[in-house]
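in:
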């Protein structure tokens, strides 16, 4: 969740590391690989946590690469006996590059024969190799063991992401809101369900420029196993459902494992809807949570 809201680095004052890999397929020849790693470290008695994440995107067909990382500071405020407020600031660095050899410029094309030359003298070619910039963001979450709500802002400094140094292309500020609620499916600890069974409902809405992205998920935690479904919708010119996802997860001691596959719902000329396969592994090394790991609950406050 820290990918959408950096305040999650301080959630429940956890000490945690994890990796995520996903591949996005538009067709058999056009794929995007995403590798993500994160770490969260809580400072006992100091009421703050630090988070570090690294994110890498690679577009195979064009050779376009995006690498970014960030350092997050999260302050922890206890509002009431069981409600916590976590404001955060994040400083990020991003680097984008493109393999110019994979691009074709107008002067490379022979209009008569259709032959494509291997070299170009287009003055734009050397200017679009790479771009680097700093990114400033802020966020907060407020939660207890039943609900969670959050807000996150990115690109507050509106960095210039243009490959052309003579032309500015400022990134718009991204605004996202998140919310979740968790139900206890076996409050009386009896019946056919595992002793600790929960249903977690989560939703997020993100606005970036003229686009709007809505993500919803419903996950049933049945003991150490979880099953979930998700829905993604987007709006640019029209509002459309883009994909439906299926997920499965398992908790083993300090480890969490998960798989997710998004099935695209394509509407020609209306929406871009690739298929997504995702795998993640996380390790919790918070020493004081040893006796409570068997609860398998998403929303917890036992480690603050």
């Amino acid at each position: 969740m820290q990918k959408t809201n950096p305040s999650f680095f301080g959630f429940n004052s956890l000490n945690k590391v994890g990796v995520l890999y996903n591949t996005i397929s538009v067709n058999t020849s056009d794929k995007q690989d995403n590798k993500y790693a994160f770490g969260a470290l809580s400072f006992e008695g100091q009421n703050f946590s630090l988070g570090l994440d690294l994110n890498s995107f690679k577009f195979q067909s064009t050779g376009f690469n995006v690498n970014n990382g960030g350092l997050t500071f999260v302050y922890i405020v206890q509002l009431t006996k069981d409600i916590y407020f976590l404001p955060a600031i994040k400083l990020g660095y991003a680097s984008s590059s493109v393999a110019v050899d994979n691009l074709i410029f107008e002067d490379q094309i022979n209009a008569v024969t259709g032959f494509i030359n291997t070299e170009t003298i287009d003055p734009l070619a050397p200017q679009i190799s790479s771009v680097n910039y700093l990114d400033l963001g802020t966020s907060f979450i407020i939660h207890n063991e039943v609900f969670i709500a959050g807000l996150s802002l990115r690109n507050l400094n509106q960095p210039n992401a243009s490959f052309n140094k003579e032309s500015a292309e400022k990134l718009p500020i991204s605004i996202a809101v998140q919310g979740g609620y968790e139900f206890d499916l076996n409050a009386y600890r009896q019946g056919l369900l595992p002793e600790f069974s929960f249903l977690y409902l989560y939703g997020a809405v993100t606005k970036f420029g003229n686009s709007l992205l809505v993500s919803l998920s419903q996950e049933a935690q049945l003991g150490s196993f979880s099953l979930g479904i998700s829905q993604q919708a987007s709006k640019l010119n029209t509002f459309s459902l883009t994909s439906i996802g299926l997920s499965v997860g398992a908790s083993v001691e300090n480890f969490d494992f998960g798989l997710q596959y998004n099935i695209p719902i394509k509407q020609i000329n209306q929406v871009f809807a690739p298929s997504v396969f995702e795998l993640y592994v996380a390790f919790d090394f918070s020493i004081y949570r040893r006796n409570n790991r068997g609860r398998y609950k998403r929303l917890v406050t036992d480690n603050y």
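note: The mean pLDDT is 86.
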